[in-house]
Specification:
alpha/beta, 6 helices
């Protein structure tokens, strides 16, 4: 019970902290379309749990590399409250701008999420990209205990340990490892 409570509480505190620092995706896309950075060929897929905010990996990519791909996909994976999701309901596509598309992949709680297969469905539905010229950008957070946290020190340490042993997103979502770029950040909780 203590481990489950710590995981839920730590996840909520981490979400609240990172949420305060995020930029709305629509605002960022509008700014990038007014003053576009250098473009490189191919497609970039940025994974995020919040499809309305700019992913951390996108922000750091722009900050450090100062380039943007020709096509950019903001990808969110949702877990449904049903064991399986009908393939017709698996993919939701929404254009965000000229070079940005928001894609939501839905999987049932009994299904193993498979991003390449989900994106193949998206391609058939009109989201054109070639998987072999696609790079997947993921954010990796290194957590550090804060002097003042919403949890006692022992819970901070337990939550940090739990995040370190959690499944790797690349493996869990079955993303080809040779197509992944991980962008790391340090976050205090």
């Amino acid at each position: 019970m203590a481990v489950m409570y710590t995981w839920r509480r730590g996840t909520r505190l981490l979400y609240e902290k990172t949420r305060r620092q995020e930029t709305p995706l629509g605002d960022l896309v509008a700014m990038l379309e007014r003053k576009p950075p250098v473009r490189v060929p191919g497609t970039a897929v940025f994974l995020t749990s919040d499809p309305t905010s700019a992913p951390t990996a996108l922000m750091h990519s722009l900050k450090h590399y100062k380039v943007l791909h020709e096509k950019n996909v903001i990808l969110t994976i949702e877990t449904a409250h049903t064991p399986r999701v009908n393939p017709a309901e698996r993919v939701r596509i929404e254009p965000v701008g000229n070079t940005f598309t928001r894609v939501v992949l839905r999987f049932g709680f009994m299904e193993t999420p498979n991003v390449p297969k989900g994106l193949a469905i998206a391609r058939k539905l009109g989201c054109p990209f070639e998987i072999m010229s696609t790079s997947f950008f993921l954010s990796r957070r290194a957590l550090k205990p804060a002097a003042r946290s919403g949890m006692p020190r022992w819970q901070d340490r337990l939550f940090i340990l739990l995040t370190r042993v959690a499944n790797d997103a690349t493996d869990y979502f079955q993303i080809p490892t040779d197509r992944v770029v991980e962008v790391g950040t340090q976050v205090t909780i």
